[in-house]
């Protein structure tokens, strides 16, 4: 058909005719695209949240493993070597070594001794006696049975060494760990009580050449007085100083310190270095359980009267190959030999 006037033909096309079918803003295709985008974002959020939760669980597991697992972060800390201590001592300069300068050490002891008059604190004479033993050995490997008001002091005086605390109260261990970051402490499940003391002592005497012998692997011990549930790596440490100031022993139903004293005696004698000695200090020595168990497992011949007080006994226990394997004390060994003849 020709246009008017015979001009060229004109074709008019509406712009909407160029849009593909189904491409409108409200079309099903666009709805599906938004749905897939929403699903993708939701999946991404879930994966991110799962990663964060996994990281949190890993961190929590690491904290728990620090206290109990062998080879944990606390166990990975190397024990203080005797060679390093001897090298520092040979210089004759206390301040040059890894321990505290002498004047700082003495100031801490003086401050603690002055505050020892408060209720529940250790007597000043006992604080000074323990500090004197630490001053001779620090920095060293220090094991303390019991947590209390003096806990920060013992840790500070052994600056540069390794200090480990053991206590029967799991809540108190966690509480002090929170207040003193870096504190190495473990809870111990004691299975004995003060009222069992006479029977336990008699049984240990009868088995001192067998399951309750003075040199043994405590981790696998069958002796009722042996503490065998500590982190494994603690049994391999050469302890230079052991302080027994726990667990509680004030009532017949409390754990008492029979196991702590027995275990301290075995740990000291188990040292493999020839001539190595461990200072073992027992607090509340005026009480029957502490006095009787100390005489049985630490021995009067090893007590140092000059550095002891009425309520604190200081023993020096030697390890190595010369240690008797069938008796704790010389008198007990002699009595056994006489009875056998």
UniProtKB/TrEMBL annotation:
NCBIfam families: A_thal_3515. It is found in: Golgi apparatus membrane. One of its GO terms (biological process) is xylan biosynthetic process. PANTHER family: OS11G0490100 PROTEIN (PTHR31444). It holds the Pfam family IRX15_IRX15L_GXM. The chain crosses the membrane at residues 35-56. Keywords: Membrane, Transmembrane, Transmembrane helix. One of its GO terms (cellular component) is Golgi membrane. The keyword Acyltransferase does not apply. It is a single-pass membrane protein. InterPro entries: IRX15/GXM/AGM. It comes from Triticum urartu (Red wild einkorn). The keyword Zinc-finger does not apply. This is Polysaccharide biosynthesis domain-containing protein.
